[in-house]
Protein: Putative hydrolase of the HAD superfamily
Organism: Marivirga sericea
Amino acid sequence: MQKIRTIIFDLGGVIINLYVEKTIVAFSELSGLSEKEVESAYLSADVFKQYEKGLISDADFRQSLRDQFKLKVSDYEINSAWNAMLGEITAERIESIRYLLQNYKCIVLSNTNAIHERAFHKILSDSFPYQHLKELFHEVYFSHELNQRKPDREIYENVLSLAKTQANEALFMDDGIQNLNSASQLGIHTLHIPRNGGFMHLLENKLSDI
């Protein structure tokens, strides 16, 4: 029987609730564009991927949004609209993570960015005795710090190396099918978590099947 030693958590939609539609609404209200126009730009613009890879600064990212959506608003208003997608972290999930830490190496692998990182750490510290996810998890890896992002193969290879973990001893949970497919191709066990759904019951079932 294969033994799982490391559990890799996605962040948005798995640990913290994610409501992308709230950010789309917020930028629609700031710009006067329709929600459909904002969503189309969000899905197609390369700047979001560049920002998640840490290849552009916060200031350059905000300026690109001003240019794209014809915005004449403050940094604060842009940050607030961008952070609108970040929801709550439930106590149940924190307790589940604490329980898993007793028997597994638990790490985070997230496509994120500097503005969101500051925001979700404030959400975390406002509700729990942690200032940073590193105080809860064994290791934390953010795309904007690695200059890599899911679902690119190299980010999984890099994290396995950094975490000193074998692919067949790791289980990766994510709400994105494409991210899971890429990890699976490397031999990592994977588990799809419906966005903002609880993960513990699904995880226990998966672990019992491996």
The two ends are 7 Å apart (CA to CA).
